[in-house]
Write a structure and sequence with these properties.
Strand content: 35-45%
Helix content: under 10%
Structural class: mainly beta
Number of strands: 6
Largest sheet: 3 strands, antiparallel
Oligomer: single chain
Strand order of the largest sheet: 1-2-3
């Protein structure tokens, strides 16, 4: 959750069936709508998301670490 705006939330959708399905999604309206922001992450099923409000970056990690400028 964005500490500056509690309506902004990021989630990582992960499947455990061996498929390549997964992604990172963002809402800015408390979950009424979601935007796929996976983009070109190295790994589309990150287990850890951390938002840094000072740099406006969302860090996604599991098999490696990636960042998404927000």
């Amino acid at each position: 959750m964005d500490p500056r705006d509690d309506r902004t939330i990021w989630i990582s959708a992960v499947t455990w069936d061996g498929s390549s399905d997964g992604g990172v999604y963002k809402t800015t309206d408390n979950g009424a709508t979601w935007q796929d922001i996976t983009g070109n992450l190295n790994y589309v099923k990150p287990q850890v998301l951390r938002f840094n409000p000072e740099t406006n970056e969302l860090w996604a990690g599991w098999v490696g670490i990636s960042k998404i400028k927000q």
